[in-house]
């Protein structure tokens, strides 16, 4: 009777050792999986940060371009307005000169 108990004990101890090894392997795999997941998350965050930075730079460049174009249009309008007022003043002077000439003949 002693023999089956020793065999059962040895089998039970062997099973416990196998289970302990399995636990160690599974724990290592779980830690490795966690590290890989952390790496993937870190890469995704880094990519997102880079994309956000690039988009902000693009927005800033577009805003600067829009402001430049707007200022150029305002300058062109101001120049056209100045030219227009100069032409109008010149036409008024021509009208006065012609009127004075006509009045002097009459």
Question: Would you kindly provide a brief summary of this structure?
Answer:
This protein is 98% helix and 0% strand. With 106 residues, it is mostly helical.
- Uncertain segments of ≥5 residues (pLDDT<50)? none
- Based on DSSP secondary structure assignment, what is the total number of beta strands? 0
What is the residue-mean pLDDT, rounded to a whole number?
95
- What is the molecular shape? rod-shaped
What is the terminal separation in angstroms? 154 Å
Tell me the series of helices and strands, N- to C-terminal: H
What is Rg? 45 Å
Q: Report helical residue fraction.
A: over 70%
| Residues in β-strands, percent | under 5%
If helices are DSSP runs of H or I spanning 4 or more residues, what is the number of helices? 1
Based on helices, strands and strand pairing, what is the structural class?
Answer: mainly alpha
> What profile does the largest beta sheet have?
none
Keywords: Coiled coil
Coiled coil: 52-79
Describe the structure.
- This protein is 98% helix and 0% strand.
- With 106 residues, it is mostly helical.
- The longest helix is centred in the middle third of the chain and has 104 residues, at 2-105.
- The N and C termini lie far apart (154 Å).
Write out key terms for the chains shown.
1 helix; 106 residues; mainly alpha
Secondary-structure blueprint:
Layout (H helix, E strand, L loop, with lengths): L1 H104 L1
